[in-house]
Specification:
With about 300 residues, the chain is α+β, with helices and mostly antiparallel strands. The protein folds into 2 domains: about 5-150, 3-Layer(aba) Sandwich (Rossmann fold), CATH 3.40.50.150; about 155-300, Hnrnp arginine n-methyltransferase1. Helices cover about 25% and strands about 35% of the residues. The protein is built from 8 helices and 17 strands. The chain has helices spanning about 5-10, 20-25, 30-40, 55-65, 75-85, 130-145, 280-285, 295-305, and strands at about 45-50, 70-75, 95-100, 115, 150, 155-165, 165-170, 170, 175-180, 190, 195-200, 210-215, 220-240, 245-250, 250-260, 265-275, 290-295. The strands form 4 sheets. Strands 6, 9, 10, 11, 13, 14 and 15 form a 7-stranded antiparallel sheet that branches. It has a 5-stranded parallel sheet with strand order 3-2-1-4-5, sandwiched between helices. Strands 12-16-17 form a 3-stranded antiparallel sheet. Strand 2, helix 5 (about 75-85) and strand 3 form a beta-alpha-beta unit.
C-alpha cells in the first residue's frame, strides 16, 4: 500500500510540461521579485534548500551568495533540465540538484533558508502548505531548532465579488479564468472591494482547512456571477525599511453556480470552504452568495406613500 507521502506526491503539480517552466522564466514580475527577495535574505556563507526547484533558477539566485544550495525536484525531466541550465551559468556548481520527493527529503546539514515556490492561487492544487508543515516536523526532529527562514514567509489571500463576462464570440461558457494583475479587462466589473479571508504565516503551524464567511457592501449594481481570488505572497520582510517584497499571483476568477442580482448599497454574504492543496472544482462547489440587505427594497418601503387615515 502506498504511504500518504507517496499519494500526495502525485498531486504536487511537478509533472507539468517543461515548457510551462520555461514560461515561468519569462514572467518578469515573478522573476524580479523572487530575485530581490532571495538577494535580501541569503547572506554569504549560508546554506539554502529549495523544495520543488523546476528549472533551478531560484536556487541559482541563491547560489550567487550562498556557499551551498540543495535543489530538490521530483520530475526527472526537470532534474535533467535544471542540471543542464545550471551548468551554463556562473556559480551553478554551488547548486546540487537532487532527484527526490519534497515530502521526504531532508538536507544532510542544517540550512538557513528554505525556498518553496509550489504556489497556486488560494494555495490550491499544489501542496505547498503540506510540504512546509511536513518539513518543519522532520527538520526539528533531526536538527532541532531554530527553523530556517521560509520563502515566502507568509501568504495573504482575499476574495472579491465580480460581474464577469462569459461570452466568447457568442458562445456562453462560465469557465475558470486567470487574469494578469496589471491588465484591465473590459469584461470584468468589480462589484465590491476585496476582503482578506486567510493569512498563512509559515513561521507558525498552519491548518490545511479554510472555511470563510464574510459580508460585502456592494458598490456597483450588476449581476454577481463570479468570485475573484487574490493571493499575495510575502517573499521577504525587510525589517530595516519596515516593508516587504511581495509577489502577486494572477487573479483567479471562479463562476458562481447561480448568479445574484445586486445593487449599490446592498449587503452581500459570501461563503466557501476548501482544503489547501485541494482542487478548484471542490472550492467552486462550496461557493455561495446571497443578498442579506436589499437597499432597493428598503428604499421602496421608505418612499411608499402613507396610507390615508379616514377622518
Amino acid at each position: 500500500m502506498l504511504k500518504e507521502s507517496e499519494i500526495e506526491s502525485c498531486y504536487l503539480g511537478q509533472f507539468i510540461p517543461v515548457h510551462y517552466h520555461h514560461n515561468m522564466l519569462m514572467d518578469q514580475n515573478r522573476m524580479h521579485n523572487f530575485k530581490s527577495a532571495i538577494h535580501y535574505a541569503v547572506k554569504p556563507g549560508m546554506k539554502v534548500l529549495e523544495l520543488g526547484g523546476g528549472t533551478g533558477v531560484l536556487s541559482w539566485f541563491a547560489a550567487q551568495m550562498a556557499d551551498k544550495v540543495y535543489c530538490v525536484e521530483f520530475n526527472p525531466d526537470m532534474v535533467k533540465e535544471a542540471r543542464k541550465m545550471l551548468a551554463m551559468n556562473p556559480n551553478g556548481h554551488k547548486v546540487e540538484v537532487i532527484h527526490a520527493d519534497a515530502f521526504e527529503y531532508l538536507p544532510p546539514e542544517p540550512v538557513d533558508v528554505v525556498i518553496c515556490e509550489m504556489i497556486h492561487v488560494g494555495m490550491l492544487r499544489e501542496k505547498q502548505v503540506q510540504v512546509i508543515e511536513s518539513f518543519k516536523q522532520r527538520y526539528l526532529a533531526r536538527f532541532g531548532g531554530p527553523l530556517p527562514v521560509f520563502m515566502p514567509e507568509a501568504v495573504i489571500m482575499a476574495v472579491q465579488p465580480l460581474q464577469q463576462e462569459y461570452d466568447f464570440e457568442g458562445f456562453y461558457a462560465p469557465i475558470v479564468q486567470f487574469q494578469e494583475t496589471t491588465v484591465i479587462y473590459p469584461g470584468t466589473a468589480e462589484l465590491a472591494a476585496p476582503q482578506v479571508y486567510s493569512i498563512l504565516d509559515f513561521t507558525q503551524p498552519n491548518d490545511l482547512s479554510i472555511a470563510w464567511e464574510g459580508k460585502f457592501l456592494v458598490e456597483k449594481t450588476g449581476a454577481l456571477n463570479a468570485l475573484r481570488f487574490v493571493t499575495k505572497n510575502v517573499l521577504a520582510v525587510v525589517q530595516e525599511r519596515g516593508s516587504t517584497i511581495d509577489w502577486l499571483n494572477h487573479y483567479m476568477t471562479l463562476p458562481l453556480q447561480q448568479p445574484v442580482q445586486v445593487h449599490a448599497g446592498d449587503v452581500l454574504r459570501v461563503s466557501f470552504a476548501y482544503r489547501c492543496g485541494g482542487s478548484i472544482p471542490a472550492l467552486e462547489a462550496t461557493m455561495q452568495a446571497e443578498v442579506i440587505y436589499d437597499s432597493t427594497a428598503e428604499h421602496v418601503i421608505s418612499a411608499a406613500p402613507s396610507p390615508t387615515v379616514p377622518a
